[in-house]
Amino acid sequence: MQRSERHRDVEFSITLGHKEVVFETLDEAAPYVLSAALEEGRAFLDVLVHSEDGATWYGGDEARELYEDDPEASVFERIEVRASSLGRVP
Description:
The protein is α+β, with helices and mostly antiparallel strands. Helix content is 37%, strand content 29%.
């Protein structure tokens, strides 16, 4: 998967509190999840895959097999992003 590309059956979701924001590409989602992690200390990026083709696009044959094991999974992969400010570095 190239980060700036998209696949019609793959989405990237970030949930903060009761608000969910969904993006079509990782390039769009990455700055948002980093910003959320800086605000909250951590944030989750959920990869939503809606088909075998989407799974193959996202992670190859191994991802396709994982999808086939549980096609009804609400989240294909959850990525935790932690961020904290370490202050100024002289």
